[in-house]
Automatic annotation (TrEMBL):
Protein name: Helicase HerA central domain-containing protein
Residue ranges occupied by any Helicase HerA central domain in the UniProt entry: 148-405
InterPro entries in UniProt: HerA-like (IPR008571), HerA_central (IPR002789), P-loop_NTPase (IPR027417)
Length: 578
């Protein structure tokens, strides 16, 4: 009869040495046997005895050193003349079965450190499979755990994450181009879409997640481009200017270097408040009229605002000898053309080229329903929004508009009726940069995302940050991401940025990042009981993110590119095929 495996009674074949040094979270093990040393792998796992017979310390091998010394024949009985030193970082505690439980349990807290001379055993083979299975069982208490793939160290063991902790405490997916980052994100999105009441918005900056819309619980929208302004399809979204907050609107249209900027902002504020008041009065919205502010999402006419400011700009007042220029005469000579330029730019049509339906009070209800309605029989829960036609100079403002709207709706919902929603921020380094590198538009976007990062959990709003340049990301947002899925990173600055998010006893993990294969990731955080190297499972619906194989393409027979069609699309600002 085959002996039943027991993590508390590991076979002597797995013995590697004795503890000779104990620090706050680091343990050193000595081994004088070269055969034992050959079984030791950096980043492998060990299990060590502690003073409590019902607990074991689990650690990760950080370094292995082979030390030779001069043997003193009068005192030493060891003929090998070597003493191998293994440095181990403590990861957590394995507790034996308690009353009512048949199997051990693992916790990330380090409750007992081993004593000097304690036995240390390697976790590999069947014992490693048993241990990873235990981790999976602990994580799979949810009926539908989040599965990314399999453990690299135990290919037959599924790597499961705690979906609650993953989204409650925000998460990051980082990796260089071609490392498998988009696959990983697609894998996560697919599993969210498979849940009964899923609710997620994906900010797709390059249109690469379009294939995922084939999933029955995923839909895709596009921000209106220049070719969509006259006859938009059902999948086209407009984001009206009146949804922008006061400061956001000024960041879009005001030149702060203009000496008349304070007068311009004051006049614009007064004109907007007056225009919103007029709409509320005409709609008979008495309660709203008593409480509205300049930031209230109330439609207003930009024509009315322009007329009011133009009147100030041309105003004459009665002087001692006749009409003279008013106090604001000529102060808006630069502001008004700048505003008109923004309004007439067809690239900004989704903001300014609005029809009557987008200027109606109930358009906000329509937009919120589109963006935030959870999965049901008629509405897919995962919404991919294609921002690829939004100009890069206003992209931060536009993305933050959606994020702020979601956050505010959640904030003003009754807590008992609030349904959680996640925002997937693809290519986040493009609009969430460090404060020092942010321009006016990016600074306003940062303010909204930073607030979500710090307070979103209270209102059921989660962030999933995706980036290939973590070193360029805003540190406040990064610091709130307590889950990190790191694929291959070679740049030293990017590795350091990721290392800064890791606990001190896991800092050595950054050294693995350049060695990861395509589709391999290091997963660390609150959602993962054990820092793990995982092989990401291939998603069912693959994004359009594969790198072009230049050499192979150049080696094939000539493939004619329709350059005339491309030029036509460029002129029309429309990617449609004809």
């Amino acid at each position: 009869m085959q002996q039943r495996l027991d993590l508390f009674n590991i076979s002597s074949e797995h013995f590697v040495g004795y503890v000779n040094k104990v620090d706050s979270y680091r343990v050193n093990v000595s081994s004088s046997n070269d055969d034992q040393l050959r079984k030791v792998n950096v980043n492998g796992y060990v299990i060590m005895n502690t003073s409590d017979p019902n607990t074991r310390l689990v650690g990760r091998i950080d370094r292995v050193i082979r030390l030779e010394y001069d043997r003193d024949e009068t005192t030493s009985t060891d003929d090998s003349g070597v003493n191998n030193d293994i440095t181990i970082n403590a990861l957590g505690t394995l507790k034996g079965p308690r009353s009512g439980k048949e199997s051990p349990s693992f916790t990330r807290s380090v409750e007992n450190l081993p004593e000097i001379g304690a036995d240390c055993f390697l976790l590999y083979g069947e014992y490693l499979t048993l241990f990873t299975g235990l981790i999976a069982d602990e994580t799979a208490k949810s009926k539908t755990p989040l599965s990314l793939g399999t453990y690299t160290m135990a290919a037959n063991a599924h790597a499961l994450l705690d979906g609650n902790a993953f989204f409650q405490r925000h998460a990051m997916v980082v990796g260089s181009t071609g490392s498998g980052k988009s696959w990983t994100v697609a894998r996560i999105i697919e599993q969210v879409a498979g849940l009964n009441d899923s609710n997620m918005i994906v900010f797709d900056l390059h249109g690469e997640y379009e294939p995922l819309a084939a999933h029955p619980n995923i839909t895709r929208y596009r921000i209106a481009g220049p070719g969509d302004l006259e006859n938009p399809n059902e999948d086209v979204l407009f984001l009206p200017y009146w949804l922008l907050g006061y400061e956001d609107m000024l960041a879009l249209i005001l030149d702060r270097s203009d000496e008349n900027a304070p007068n311009q902002s004051m006049a614009f504020s007064n004109a907007v408040i007056s225009a919103k008041k007029t709409v509320l009065e005409n709609e008979g919205m008495v309660k709203e009229l008593d409480t509205f502010t300049i930031d209230s999402p109330v439609p207003y006419s930009l024509d009315d605002v322009v007329n009011a400011i133009t009147e100030l700009n041309e105003q004459k007042v009665q002087g001692k000898t006749g009409p003279v220029n008013g106090p604001f005469n000529g102060k808006f000579n630069r502001f008004l053309p700048r505003l008109q330029s923004k309004r007439s730019d067809r690239r900004h049509g989704f903001l300014f080229a609005l029809k009557q339906e987008q200027l109606a009070v109930n358009y906000l209800d329509y937009l919120v329903e589109k963006l935030m309605k959870a999965n049901d029989d008629r509405t897919p829960g995962v919404k991919i929004i294609d921002f690829s036609e939004v100009p890069s100079d206003i992209l931060p403002i536009v993305l933050s508009l959606v994020a702020r709207l979601v956050f505010q709706v959640q904030q003003w919902s009754a807590s008992s009726l609030r349904h959680p929603i996640a925002l997937v921020c693809d290519e986040a380094h493009l609009y969430l940069p460090n404060r020092m590198a942010a321009d006016a538009a990016e600074a306003r976007a940062l303010a909204h995302f930073e607030r979500i990062a710090k307070e979103g959990r209270k209102y059921g709003v989660s962030l999933l940050i995706i980036s290939q340049r973590p070193s360029e990301l805003n540190t406040t947002v990064m610091s709130q991401c307590n889950n990190v899925v790191a694929l291959r990173l070679s740049n030293q600055a990017d590795k350091s940025a990721v290392a800064n998010l890791l606990p001190e006893n896991l800092g050595g993990i950054q050294d693995q990042l350049p060695t990861l294969g395509v589709g391999e990731a290091i997963v660390v955080g609150d959602s993962c009981l054990l820092p793990s190297r995982i092989k990401i499972q291939k998603p069912e619906y693959q994004p359009n993110s594969g790198s072009v194989k230049f050499w192979d393409e150049w080696s094939k027979a000539a493939k004619q590119q329709n350059l005339a069609l491309a030029v036509q699309n460029l002129r029309r600002q429309n990617s449609g095929q004809e």
